[in-house]
Write a structure and sequence with these properties.
Length: about 675
């Protein structure tokens, strides 16, 4: 109680009507726990870095996050106000830029209700950036007219490059992102066109500006294509995600009414190490497509080491054949906002320890974030996908050690939020879960055959084949739905290698997702219902490949170490002369007992192959003056009888030659 007496009249006073409790409110802890929890921590510019703190008595407090290059500052504000609740309860994220490089980095946590109370990390950390590759020409700003990039130069992006006109790129051209950690992206605006038509022998490369061996996810932004097709957002248009769009409709906006719009051509191209965090928790994808129309041609594209999704569609109706996603952090094929295209022949290769905090799948399919009934529905049709997961054996457990996989991997496919995506004739190998259908409207759609999962094969599923989440399933929709005989789906739950693919779990250049002779996936494909469209090529096999591979020679499965050079002279394969008539690779290298030699002839040639040691002495001659047609050739070099040292495989022809070093170790 509180008593209020009169000073002049001691008998006059009043007491509060009701009792109340007096409590002690402890002071909030101000204790930073990461980064800098351990000695010698290192963070790469351009990538999201977690900041964590002690949450004792800090609920709904606000923090300022600062950065300095010594424990006493001076300090630069990274985040002005972070509320300690919900998704930022005890943690948030920051991004370092090239100017933040140091070997003595510190984060300072400032309590905004009492700015005298602060804390810094216990151990200094490093902020690093790799040295950039030298480029010949820089692309910047807005391209309004017609610009052509030639393959005799290496080009670098300077920040955000927007295409309003036409950007033509020659086969074999190399385009690098900006300095690692600096935001950069190539964005084709509505009405603009990208004409990037590579060839199998001369793919167009969009990659990191870091040197071989130093490239990593998130080194630059990626490619964004904005079209005029329909989306299901109520306004009919929207800014592309990732923070690069204008505040009002303009650069980086997508959507319209022309589903047959054309944004140009992207064929035989590789997009590597994309997905920079423009702002914390807002990474760009490898290839982002917003409302891209059906007259756009995007085939034979590989996205490798993406720092978010590999391919993401926001509405539109563009179709694809021959897509490859390698080492993606988040999802391989992500569709939202009413995408309704068709995709046939696609590969997803996952690395067992690389997964995102948001849960990583091959397919993540949403109608929109709210799971609304807005139209057009997200309703793409995928057929002939090969999806290699993180498990080589279902006995593996979640963790970071040997024979373990990242716990943040989810199902191979997740269809949710009222999406109507269909998946046919596909192969899934080595996944924690098979497929998840989430939220009641999505389950209703599946139960009514408005989305189809047909004639697919799963091999090696550690937990459930079908998971139904986010509500009570309707009658007739249960865990046995996926196994209905009329749907033609099969599972070999225990055997991750049951699909009998050549070398599906290799994460090197020896990766080979083609089926072996006698594989069960060589037969059984059916093209019915949503897969009956004439777009789909009628093949017998399930998955991306039959006995022949379409990914060679243009795909690359070791982009971290691949050396890229501009063409010596401009190379045009159609109607011209190829000045350098062949390319070649050796793997593994170094080797002990044997190595694979793979070479490609750009034209018909007469070829000789021999092996010499470092002094030039002949060790063996495989063949001399053999006529070979243009194409890819491969043979096995047995090195078990060679002494330790350096050798050279010399492949010579009338149209060119290539010498491949081979290191033999014991």
């Amino acid at each position: 109680y509180v008593k209020l007496p009169s000073v002049d009249h001691a008998t006059s006073f009043d007491v509060s009507d009701y009792s109340f409790a007096s409590i002690y409110l402890p002071r909030p802890a101000v204790r930073l726990t990461a980064p800098g929890a351990n000695a010698n921590e290192s963070y790469r510019v351009g990538q999201t870095v977690a900041v964590r703190w002690d949450t004792t008595n800090t609920f709904r407090e606000r923090w300022r996050i600062e950065y300095g290059k010594s424990s006493t500052g001076p300090w630069k504000t990274l985040l002005a106000s972070v509320r300690d609740s919900a998704g930022t309860r005890g943690n948030t994220n920051v991004v370092f830029r090239p100017e933040d490089q140091t070997t003595s980095g510190y984060i300072r946590l400032v309590l905004l209700s009492d700015t005298t109370r602060t804390d810094v990390n216990d151990n200094a950390f490093s902020v690093i950036a790799p040295a950039p590759v030298q480029c010949d020409s820089v692309i910047s700003g807005v391209i309004d007219g017609n610009v052509k990039l030639q393959n005799t130069k290496i080009y670098c992006l300077d920040g955000y490059v927007f295409v309003n006109g036409t950007l033509e790129i020659e086969p074999g051209t190399i385009v690098l992102g900006d300095t690692v950690g600096q935001n950069s992206v190539l964005c084709v605006n509505r009405g603009g066109k990208l004409v990037a038509k590579g060839t199998p022998g001369l793919p167009i490369i969009f990659t990191s500006s870091a040197r071989p061996g130093e490239r990593a996810r998130g080194d630059w932004g990626g490619i964004v294509i904005c079209g005029k097709g329909r989306i299901n957002a109520p306004a009919g248009e929207a800014p592309i995600e990732g923070g690069i769009a204008d505040a009002q409709p303009g650069k980086g906006w997508y959507g319209g009414t022309d589903d047959a719009d054309s944004s140009g051509v992207l064929e035989y191209a590789r997009i590597e190490f994309a997905g920079i965090a423009v702002v914390p928790n807002s990474e760009l994808n490898g290839l982002t497509m917003g409302a891209v129309g059906s007259r756009t041609v995007i085939n034979n594209v590989q996205v490798s080491y993406g720092n978010d999704d590999a391919f993401e569609w926001f509405g539109g109706s563009v179709n694809h054949k021959n897509l490859i996603a390698v080492g993606t952090l988040d999802d391989d094929f992500d569709a939202d906002f009413g995408y309704s295209g068709k995709v046939q022949f696609a590969v997803a290769q996952r690395f067992r320890l690389v997964a995102d905090q948001s849960t990583s799948q091959v397919f993540e399919q949403d109608n929109d974030a709210q799971g609304s009934f807005n139209r057009p529905f997200t309703s793409p049709v995928f057929s002939n996908v090969t999806a290699i997961g993180p498990l080589q054996d279902t006995s593996w457990t979640a963790g970071n050690g040997a024979n373990q996989f990242n716990s943040r991997f989810g199902a191979a496919a997740q269809i949710r939020r009222n999406a109507r995506t269909s998946i046919h004739n596909s192969v899934f190998m080595g996944w924690p879960r098979g497929i998840e259908i989430a939220q009641v409207p999505t389950m209703n759609a599946a139960n009514a055959d408005s989305l189809e999962v047909r004639n697919n094969a799963w091999y090696g599923v550690k937990n459930t084949w079908l998971n139904l989440a986010g509500g009570t399933p309707p009658a007739g929709m249960d865990a046995d739905w996926i196994a209905k005989p009329q749907y033609g789906n099969t599972i070999d739950k225990a055997n991750c290698n049951g699909g009998m693919l050549e070398n599906a779990f290799a994460t090197t250049v020896e990766f080979n997702p083609a089926p072996k002779s006698g594989s069960p996936v060589l037969t059984g494909a059916k093209f019915e219902s949503t897969a009956s469209d004439n777009f789909f090529q009628r093949v017998d096999f399930k998955g991306a490949f039959g006995m022949q591979r379409w990914d060679l020679p243009w795909a690359e499965y070791d982009p971290v170490n691949r050396e890229y050079k501009a063409q010596v002279v401009s190379v045009e394969e159609e109607g011209g002369v190829v000045m350098n008539g062949m390319t070649g690779r050796v793997f593994p290298n170094p080797t002990s007992d044997a190595a694979t030699i793979r070479y490609e002839l750009f034209t018909d040639d007469v070829v000789s192959v021999r092996v010499v040691d470092a002094t030039g002495s002949l060790q063996s001659s495989f063949f001399t003056s053999v006529a070979q047609g243009a194409g890819v050739y491969e043979f096995r070099l047995v090195t078990s009888d060679l002494a330790t040292g350096l050798y050279y495989v010399a492949i010579t022809g009338q149209q060119g030659s290539v010498t491949l070093p081979v290191t033999v170790v014991r």
